[in-house]
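Lab channel / #folding
Pinned by the channel admin:
"Please post every new chain as: sequence first, then the structure tokens as a reply. Keep commentary short and put observations after the output so the thread stays searchable."

First post following the new format, from NK:
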Amino acid sequence: MDTISRENNSYLPVFGVIAGVLALVLSGVALAKISSAKKEMAEKVDPLVLKIDEAEGQARNAAAAAEKASGSINKLATDTQAAFTQVAQEIGNIRGEITKVQESRAAAVKPAKADKAGAAKEPVVAGANEYVVKSGDTFAKIARASGVSIDAISAVNPGVNSGKLHVGQKIKLPAKK
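Reply from TO:
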């Protein structure tokens, strides 16, 4: 037999019980520490998790709003292009109508007197100190009507032949003294 069982030593079971109780107390303390650490971590982490969840929800909402705005912008661009195309067509139609009106007015206006070659002439208008020759006019008639001398008319019109005046010709008149 072994020596332990032969000896009547009662300390060994006491030490075993003490070690068991000590292990049980230590495990209880460790369990309490773990529980308090878990509570402390939950108190600190839960608000952070809530904030993260809230930020994630806001990000989803912002992404949805951005996608909706992008769709609206694309629709607006398409509608604007269609409107510009329609306006351009209307401007073309208006230009066509203006051209028709101008052509009809041009056809309704009486043609101006034609010269010997048959080309239409615009009516001649006299400016300041000018005279438009009429049928039968001579330097003498013009001088009398204007109150100046023939020589004065000849002096301001050096290139004009007084014997070859034609209707509609402009000549200069001298300043009256």
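NK: The CA atoms of residues 84 and 92 lie 12 Å apart.
TO: also worth noting, The chain has a mean pLDDT of 84.
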